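seq:
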Amino acid sequence: MNTVTPTIIIGSQWGDEGKGKITDLLSNDADLIVRFQGGNNAGHTIVVGEEVFKLHLLPSGVVMGKKNCIASGVVIDPFVLLEEIEKIENRGINIDLTIDPYCHMILPYHKEIDQSSESKLGNKKIGTTGKGIGPCYADKINRTGIRFVDFLDRDQFKNLLEINVEKKNSQYENCFFSAKDIFEKYLPLIPKLGKYLGDVSGIVYKNLKSKKIIFEGAQGTMLDISHGTYPFVTSSNTISGGVFTNVGFPPMNLNTVGIVKAYTTRVGSGPFPTELNDEMGEQIRKVGHEFGTTTGRPRRCGWLDLELLKYANRLNGFKQIALTKLDVLSGIEKIKVATSYKLNEKLMGYPLTVSQLESVSPVYKEFPGFEFDQDISDYNKLPKEAKEYIEFIEDQLNVPVKIVSTGPKRQQTIVR
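struct:
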């Protein structure tokens, strides 16, 4: 019997690599799309013709009308999810969605604690979106969280809410939460979201060998809670191995697609060796529309960092690369790529501490610029300088670049 290898889509940098477009592209041939970690601190943008879809919790495959699942590793703000569902349905798209019972719920105290904690850090801020993601994951680890299955049981929800609110009010100064007010506010959402309850782990396990499944990650490798630029990271495991525990199926071979932006960006605080704090950085930000989908914050921009990508490949095991936003570099006279780091004249590589990363000097290789039309669809019609840039990335990572995004729209894509 022939089996199908599941595909997992992973950001290779600090997020914002264009995972939404690639998930949407690959969803055309998929049967099931599963979001496996993070929360509404993520933002995936999909452009279909003249329409733009901005998603935060729903898997990107929803635009294709596919079967979609939200796995237990995701934390859910029920108001945000319901609003997102209604917006998609109002645009004429039927949503086939299953939410795992073990997803944890974000509640008002999570958001207030998140925002309060971040503001107290002053110039040492992590860069959190203030959506309550971290405090919700903290409750999960502390075994005090409220799961989707608990939320749907009004008596259980009320009981757990009273216990949690009492703890929060005693733990945090100047904070007072009302369990009664929260319960009454959230109660109307129970029947609206309850119809989506289902065993995502069971659905995935049942279909692993017979259906084409895509696992969609959020954020990026360097924001992984265990392996990223800690503490300037997110609160979940963003690397490919996290899919097994976050969805709930046995370790197995995956077709891991690494999404690589043709340059590097990050939002929020933390080290960024190739950052461009000059006119070039501003040009890339402007041309690439580098502003957060979730927060609207301007993204920090810099040259492509191959040392970072080698580390990401080591953690994720990329089988192929989707290179996005190559068009943003079109028209730049000289393009640089960091091939390694130096610290005190000594070559260094990942993993490094935050203080080391803040002190390293990138070693750059310079490439001649190139220019092309966004609607180009044939790899052989790219300028030779663009192909040299792509093939250098392939050679350095020893991973083939199978997809090249030449613009934001679906059709502005080269598949090799």
